[in-house]
Amino acid sequence: MSGLAIARRGDLVSIAASSAAGPGTRARYGRRAGSDGEVGVSRVFEHRSVMVQEVVDLMRPVPSGIVVDATLGAGGHSAALLDAHAHLRVLGIDRDPDALRAARSRLAPFGLRASVVKGRFDSLGDLAVSAGIPPGACSGVLLDLGVSSPQLDTAARGFSYRYDAPLDMRMDPGSGGPTAADLVNSMPEGDLVRLFAANGEGRFARRLARAVVAARPLLTTGDLTNAVRSGLPAAVRRQGGHPSRRVFQALRIAVNEELEQLSRVLPEAISITGPGGRIVVISYHSGEDRIVKAAFGSAVTGGCTCPPGLPCGCGAEPAGRLVFRGARRPSSEEIELNPRAESARLRALEILPAASRSEER
User: Fold this and answer.
1) How far is the C-alpha of 239 from the C-alpha of 216, rounded, in Å?
2) Which of 26, 36, 285, 315 has the most CB within a 10 Å radius?
3) For the chain, domain boundaries
4) Coil, strand or helix: which one is 194?
5) CA–CA separation, 340 vs 147, rounded Å?
């Protein structure tokens, strides 16, 4: 295939053909609450992508072809890849309408080297096929997980405890799926305990769940923040960090089925990436990182069940190799410039040619 699809295929739109993609176009997002709680004017969708140079360097040796940026956001990583690597094109995927508008504007100067599609990243395989990319033909896949700064900073989206707004938290507000308000008002107390405990609130998960149930109905982010405060001891509330941070993170992950999607998308990413291609994942939560580590580990062993240190006798075929051991972290300089990068963890897997797989066992 000499280029990405140009004509519309469902939601697929070539950057060059998008009416929103003019070089002067600036995508805008929502409304931001001021210190007095009133909602102010719209602001430009601005997001500082994390570990950009690391992503650019990791994709340098991949074969010529298409990299799928499955969590496109405002297009920062994709723009850097296209600018640095003339041998690469990008298919960007995102389900946030505001992010898609920003990305189309950001990537417009690259013309037919970049295309954008609206969709969930766990539909990666189907979206790639719809774009004319056959299985095993991608040069790489990028997943930058979590939530973007514009989503956090837009009061109306309901992601942040810093603003009083409807308790929504959906990445795609038009999806029709349940909101965070739906979850906190309908989940049994025991399910809330498990949800909060899985997101780092093990010590106080039961107290928090009880406080949330007692405060129902909760309709706004302010309602939830007040419930969290009432459920924590005063000494804990005075400690560093906002007391609602982990509760909001837990609900956002649940509303958007982020961990379930991640578990589904990693095998698809491995299957659509060709030999020498790389899968790069940036995670921001221990649950995400565990899923990535396990999926990459399974790809490296091919699912081998033989005892460690003995030759493989079960016939497992490794699909890839780790580009480096463990997870990389942002530099101290990057964290200073962008404090939201502090929790980032980057892992990378390179897909092996079939002939090399027996040597990797």
Assistant:
1) 26
2) 285
3) 13-150+258-304+314-360, 172-245
4) helix
5) 10
- Answer for the pair 91, 78: CB distance below 8 angstroms, yes or no: no
CATH class of 172-245: mainly alpha
Which pLDDT tens digits describe the chain residue by residue (361 residues)?
Answer: 334 432 333 333 333 333 333 333 233 333 333 333 333 323 455 568 999 999 999 999 999 999 999 999 999 999 999 999 999 999 999 999 889 999 999 999 999 999 999 999 999 999 999 999 988 999 999 999 978 767 777 777 888 888 899 999 998 888 888 999 999 999 999 999 999 998 876 788 999 999 999 999 999 999 999 999 999 888 777 776 677 888 999 999 999 999 999 999 999 999 999 999 999 999 999 999 999 999 999 999 998 888 877 888 888 899 999 999 999 999 999 999 998 899 999 999 999 997 555 455 4
344 close to 283: Cβ distance less than 8 angstroms: yes
